[in-house]
Amino acid sequence: MFIKFLWIIAISTIAVYGHPIAEAIPASTVQYWFSQRIDHFANNNGTWQQQYLVNATFYKAGGPIYVSTPGELPVSSRYVDNVHVTSLAQKTNGLLVTIEHRFFGSSNPMPDLSGPSLQSLTIENVLEDFASFVRTAKLSPAKVFPVPVSPNASVVFFGGSYSGNIAAWMRAKYPKLVAGAWASSAISYSRLEYYQLDQGFGRHLRALGCAEEFSQAIDAVDEILISGNKARIATLQQELGVPSLTPQDTAGLLSGLGITFSLSPVSTTEDLVEKHVCSFFNSTNQEPIAAYAAVIKNAIKQTRMTQESLIKMGDTSYGIDDYSLGQVNRVWYYMGCKWFGNWQVAPPPVTRLPRYRSRLVNLSYFEPNCQAKFGKGVATPVDVAAYNRKWFTIINGVSNIYFTSGSLDIWHESTVLSAAGLLLKRLNNSSAFVINGATHVQDLNIDQPSDLASVRISRAIGDALVSKWI
């Protein structure tokens, strides 16, 4: 899950390549590159090239600039062509730009992903990357855009999940650059052990009538995995259709497969959790562990995972040993170790909460890799309290942020819209909306006829707010 920055003196040193003003509007798949400093806050003038894409189809003079980042994913034209804000840009004569996050995709400040190279991966640097771009976009738009854009155009950030954090942080950190932010399912509040994720999954299962049976299946699987009986474990793995792994890696693999569809949007016509999880428990009289086996086999089938990919999925350290560029797992793992934790674990026994993943998936499943793979500069456990004091507190009382979260989002408890109540002390002219029946980042998806009414309402509120900000 997160972000980084630089100041006005950087404007004079920015170099942008290959952006002649064209009469025809270039396709949104055209790649552009923006020069950034490796470390905005160190005495180091080294630079690197950050990739971005632009959709100027709807732009007219005076229109706003809508900025996003895919976060931990490579940039693609989907983020400017096929999101809800695309239709908003059409209504407001806006331009859309999506900017790659450092160390993801093709935007790499360093030649490898070793521990020393990743030291420039800080939230401050990530945010300053985006701020540097926005400064240039507002003061010298011809340097970054393929069409004429009005100077000092209003800028609105939008994003979902970790990218929703970035949107909110950009508004909080750079209010003079960013007029407003739409933060959908932003994972704003971190926890070292994020067992609340599974409780969100459980709420969805309860609504569909199979939570108790699913939890019973987990208990039955655990009884075998913890038994130490190699023959029973091998039989279980065969029944589930998963490779021969250690009990802990098997538990980790099953946890991922068991909630494979939990982030899928719910529509008026289909709920994938009902279709691919609860249907196996609700339509048969078989024992919970047999129904669970059907869920796991179906997840493998639907995602077309091979035995090799299942082995990789079960190995929590997969990709962490590879220092070469493009290893998303390594970069994301580093962020968890260094920044925010949020390890997706089973609830500790003291909580007495129902479990929807194995008790073997705990801190000892994740944390040992931190120092072993990244060096002594990464302390364990990560200081989540310090992270929250800095990066959760920063959004408190900031105006012009629209926070949204689906009631069935498994990350709901880390959004500012926790089921226990609003986590922020003050909204101060910002807004928050729980999207009833929705899952993760559903309101920022491209508009569809099958969208829930609550999703449409959320978008209408967001559109009205953006119109005020610009």
TrEMBL record:
Keyword annotations of the record: Glycoprotein, Hydrolase, Protease, Signal
Signal peptide: 1-18
Residue stretches in coiled coil: none
One of the GO BP terms on file: proteolysis
Molecular function GO labels: dipeptidyl-peptidase activity; serine-type exopeptidase activity
Pfam family, one: Peptidase_S28
Domain of life of the source: Eukaryota
InterPro entries from the UniProt entry: AB_hydrolase_fold (IPR029058), Peptidase_S28 (IPR008758), Ser_carbopepase_S28_SKS (IPR042269)
Family per similarity comment: Belongs to the peptidase S28 family.
Protein name: Peptidase S28
Organism per entry: Coemansia reversa (strain ATCC 12441 / NRRL 1564)
